[in-house]
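check this:
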Amino acid sequence: MQTQASAKALFGSEGLLHQIFTFIYTIAHQIGLAAGKGFAYIFNLRFPDNLVDPVGFLTVITLFLILVCLTRKVAIWVVVIGWALMAIRLLMVIFKR
């Protein structure tokens, strides 16, 4: 019984995953609308309604990939600096300072 209740809370129509995906869709749709308005303003053309969601989702995915790449670079720098500080500390122990 508890397994069914927890699965429904996670996967149900008002579950956690549903809320997360609804949030992502809302963000992507709003970004697509903004891009469409910008396109219409710049080129003085009507932006097709069926391209709003794809443009929004591509933008969200692109921003996510940029964030992941930046996070990876920051993590590498943290590890390199950590090893450098560890080497300095070991040299201080070796030379008794």
